[in-house]
Design brief:
Neuraminidase; mainly beta; Immunoglobulin-like; elongated; 3 helices
Length: about 425
C-alpha cells in the first residue's frame, strides 16, 4: 500500500563556498537562491542536515543545495529529514519523516518531487535512525515500532512490501558486493546485529552477531565494501572495520583525531573513500585503511551522508531477431526478439515496459517469457513486437540493423541483430 504526491521544487545554487578542513581553517558559505540547479557530480558527497540536502565535494566545497518539501502542510514538528542516497547524478532519494515518513524522490532534470509511503511505516524518534539504500529499481528503508522490518519500494510500479518482520531496523546499506545489510535493533545498546539479505529474492543469507566481536556495545550505522568488509560507526566515536565473519580488522577513535564523537552515518565509495558524519555537523573523510583523515563542518546539527553514484554503464546484450527474413504477412501479427545478458546479470531484472525497438516500437507488455531458446545454458528473455510497426520503421535491405534498448533496474542495456527486410 502506498500514497504518491508530486510537488515542484525550489532549488538553491551555491555561488561561493569556503571550508573547514584538517588545517583548522573556519570560513563561511554564501547561498544565492536561483530557480535551477545542476546535476550532481559522481563521487561527490550528498549531505542531509537541518531539513535540507547539500552537495559537497570530498574536499569540503559546497556546490549546491536542495530544499526538501514534506507533503503535508503544515509539516508536523515530529517529522525530520533523515538519510539520503543519490543513485545517479539526476536523482535524490530521501527518508523524509519520523512517525509518518515518506520516501521522497527528486528528479533533478524535471525539478519534481514524488512522495511515496507505506501503511504502518515509521521510526523511533532517535536522531540517527532512519536508513535508506538503493539497488537497481528497488529502494529499501528501515522500519521500526509497531510493524517493524524493512520496506522495499519497486520504482517500476511504485509498489511496496514489508519484509524481515520482527527486525527493529535502524540503518541499512546495499554493499558494494550487491547484498543488503540491515543493522538492528533499536534500544540500548542499539545495533547489535546485522542481517544480510539478497535484495532481489529477499532471502536472509546470514546473520552477524556484533556482540561476539565488540561485546555489549551499541552501533549506529554500517557500510560495506566489495569484499564484504563492514565499516561500523559508533556513538562513542569509534569507526571500526570487520570482515564478513565478524573478525575485527581495524579500529580508530575519531574523537582523538578530530574531536568527532556521536557518530551518525557512514558510507563508502567504489574507489575506497569512507565518509563518516556526527551529531554536531562534522563530516570526516578517510580511506579503507584509516591511513589519513580530513574533515569539515556543515553546521551544528546531525548529518547523514552518502556518495553520489555514477550514471550506470550501458550493458551490451546479445539479440536474436526472429524471423531472419522479415516481410509483410497476413498470418503473423508479431515478431519475436530474444535478449541475453552478459555473465553476472539476470534477464529477470529487465523492465519489460522499458524495452524499445529502434527507440520507438514498444515490446508487448503481456507477451513475454524467460527461457533458453538457443540451448546455450544462458537464460534469455523472449519479447514480442507488433509486426506491422516494425516493418514500417525499418528500411528494406539485405543486412538491416535492428536495435533493442531497455533498462535492467536503473542500468540501460543495448543490443542489435541484422536481418533481411522485404517490403514488396
Amino acid at each position: 500500500m502506498f500514497e504518491m504526491l508530486l510537488i515542484r521544487s525550489n532549488r538553491s545554487r551555491i555561488v561561493l563556498s569556503l571550508i573547514f578542513t584538517v588545517g583548522f581553517i573556519v570560513l563561511m558559505n554564501f547561498i544565492v537562491q536561483q530557480s535551477f540547479a545542476d546535476s550532481l557530480t559522481s563521487g561527490n558527497l550528498l549531505i542531509s542536515t537541518e531539513g535540507s540536502i547539500y552537495e559537497y565535494s570530498t574536499e569540503g566545497y559546497l556546490i549546491q543545495s536542495f530544499s526538501v518539501p514534506y507533503p503535508i502542510v503544515p509539516k508536523p514538528i515530529t517529522e525530520s529529514l533523515r538519510d539520503i542516497v543519490a543513485p545517479s547524478p539526476d536523482e535524490i532519494f530521501a527518508y523524509n519523516g519520523t512517525f509518518d515518513p515518506y520516501l521522497s524522490l527528486f528528479d533533478i532534470v524535471s525539478e519534481t518531487w514524488t512522495h511515496l509511503t507505506h501503511s504502518g511505516w515509521d521510526t523511533v524518534n532517535n536522531v540517527s535512525y532512519g536508513g535508506i539504500a538503493v539497488k537497481d529499481h528497488f529502494v529499501f528503508v528501515t522500519d521500526m515500532m509497531d510493524a517493524n522490518g524493512v520496506i522495499r519500494y519497486d520504482l517500476t510500479n511504485n509498489d511496496s512490501i514489508r519484509f524481515a518482520n520482527g527486525i527493529d531496523s535502524i540503518d541499512l546499506n546495499v554493499g558494494l558486493d550487491g547484498l543488503l545489510y540491515v543493522l538492528s535493533p533499536g534500544g540500548s545498546p542499539e545495533g547489535r546485529t546485522v542481517h544480510v539479505f539478497d535484495p532481489y529474492t529477499l532471502e536472509n543469507i546470514r546473520i552477524l552477531d556484533l556482540t561476539a566481536t565488540f561485546g555489549w556495545t551499541g552501533h549506529r550505522s554500517i557500510a560495506v565494501n566489495a569484499s564484504g568488509d563492514i565499516f561500523v560507526a559508533d556513538w562513542d566515536g569509534d569507526l571500526q572495520k570487520i570482515n564478513s565473519n565478524g573478525e575485527l580488522l581495524l579500529t580508530v577513535n575519531l574523537y582523538s583525531i578530530c574531536d568527532c564523537h556521536n557518530l551518525f552515518d557512514v558510507d563508502i565509495s567504489a574507489d575506497g573513500l569512507v565518509v563518516v558524519s556526527n551529531r554536531f555537523g562534522r563530516v570526516v573523510i578517510t580511506d579503507e585503511d584509516f591511513s589519513s583523515f580530513t574533515y569539515f563542518d556543515v553546521g551544528t546539527m546531525g548529518v547523514f551522508v552518502s556518495f553520489v553514484l555514477g550514471t550506470p554503464d550501458t550493458i551490451t546484450a546479445t539479440i536474436n531477431f526472429d524471423p531472419d527474413n522479415l516481410k509483410i504477412s497476413k498470418k503473423e501479427n508479431f515478431v519475436t526478439v530474444y535478449i541475453e545478458l552478459p555473465e553476472g546479470y539476470n534477464v529477470e531484472d529487465i523492465i519489460i515496459s522499458s524495452i524499445l525497438l529502434e527507440e520507438s516500437v514498444p515490446a508487448e507488455l503481456s507477451n513475454y517469457a524467460i527461457g533458453d531458446e538457443d540451448n546455450d545454458g544462458i537464460q534469455d528473455l523472449m519479447v514480442k513486437f507488433k509486426r506491422d510497426d516494425v516493418i514500417n520503421i525499418l528500411p528494406a535491405g539485405n543486412n538491416v540493423p535492428v536495435q533493442i534498448t531497455g533498462l535492467m533496474g536503473i542500468s540501460p542495456f543495448y543490443g542489435e541483430d541484422y536481418i533481411k527486410v522485404i517490403k514488396r
